[in-house]
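User: I'm writing a short methods note and want a consistent example. For Glucose-6-phosphate isomerase, I'll paste the sequence; you return only the structure tokens, no commentary, since I'll be parsing the reply automatically.
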Amino acid sequence: MTTAADAWQALADWEPRPLAGLVGADPEARLQLLVRSVADIRFDFAKTHLDEAAIAALLDLAKAQDFAGRRKALFSGGIVNPSEGRAAEHSAERGEGAPDPVHRAQLLHQRMRMLVDAIEAGAFGEIRHLLHIGIGGSALGPDLLVDALGRHGSRYDVAVVSNVDGAALSEAFAGFSPEHTLVAVASKTFTTTETLLNAASALQWLEEAGIEDALGRFIALTAHPDKAMEWGIDETRILPFSETVGGRYSLWSSIGFPAALALGWDAFADLLEGAAEMDRHFRLAEGADNICLLAAFVDQLYANRLGCQTRAVFAYDERLRLLPAYLQQLEMESNGKSVTLDGAPLGRASAPITWGGVGTDAQHAVFQLLHQGTHLTPVEFIVAREPDHLLDDAHHETLVGNCIAQGAALMAGRASEDGARHYPGNRPSTTILLDQINPRSLGALIAFFEHRVFANAVLLGINPFDQFGVELGKEMAKGLAEGSMEFDPATRALMLAALGD
Ligand SMILES: O=P(O)(O)OC[C@H]1O[C@](O)(CO)[C@@H](O)[C@@H]1O
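Assistant:
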């Protein structure tokens, strides 16, 4: 049997062919090999350097790394996060997983729904605003969902406040009236400094506004209900989710509460169903037919064969403007690792740096480097067939046309004697085309990215579900605030300059 080392060697021996040749030689075969539709989303990898030989090497790698076994473990509650001795059961929140976690998720969703109904029925008075306080995975997902899907007729004003910089909370206070505000404190651990400080300031804001029983306006979204109760939130207003749902995979749990409240329960249920459809595809599709695995093949090709240190994602859709930030956490916190599952040095590139923005804005800001810079950067375009507005068709046509033209220009390039006007071309891109952006398609899209991250982790042999890398910085920030830690002279001088003594 081919070992992982053999498969990596085969990839090292593989030579990329020019993109224009790959696409031009037999266009029909190319499209058939590299363009697929899953959950009404078209994934187009035709303008990447992936070819049959690279796919064969990467399929061998997947086999050598027991992709099928690890995928089975993911969906059946196996310990896929060995450093923390845990399963990773975000798919169970969508109904896809082992019976027990699926049942627990259903009970949680029932409680969420009852709370949504109670708020609507006026159990908390006349609520118009939801102040959602959380950070990282406890903020990026809900923020993305509400921003993307709540643009027309969101039933509540939602502010997601994550930064401990008081300017963020002050801005939210300025837009909300205390008597109509409900506060959701979202924290898996319920120990995160920034979140607890923001929550305490929100409580003070309500109290100072004369709200009777200000704590009664708080709900908690957490995997540690005991800690939320200690903080003062009544058990009846706590929506506890499972420890086996990772923070950056948690928008499907009660962390998604703002979306369920603002968009309505049916929309939240559609979101889960869209993700479940992608779960089923990922669980059942074999080999290169599996779109999440195929995307991971492209990622490995660029990160580990062609030396690309970054991956750029551009949403050509204003509704998805927060997607790049969401993906940064999902991809970089999951796969930004340097050791394998058994703690040995990884010895190759882990996750590339994810960056990006929104099109067409980014074209006028950063695309210069993509078209002519010295870095090779695989670019991902995300675009929808249907616009979200009633303005003249010219808007959508220009938007989509620009998106498609960028991929074509990156690939084709244009030769010129004048170096400044020379476009080298042969630059890869992937295009993800959605019919519409709605709860169902967004659920499927986000689940696609989650499973692609997992597939990459399997190919690399790393654990995508822990994040010890962020702990040291947290500890030192605490040590600095409490004066309980010794720092080096340069840091001491900086502290003195910034904070006084
Ligand atoms: O939900 P919590 O426990 O407040 O953590 C917030 C975020 O902080 C992290 O632990 C990183 O510091 C993320 O993984 C997580 O999403």
